[in-house]
Amino acid sequence: MVLIDSSCWVHFFRRRGDATIRGRVAKLLETGQAAWCPLVRLELWNGVGSESDRKILREHERWLPDLAITDEVWARACVLAGRCRAAGKTVPANDVLIVACARHHEAELEHADAHFDLLLKL
Question: Is the confidence at residue 122, as pLDDT, over 90?
Answer without folding.
Answer: no
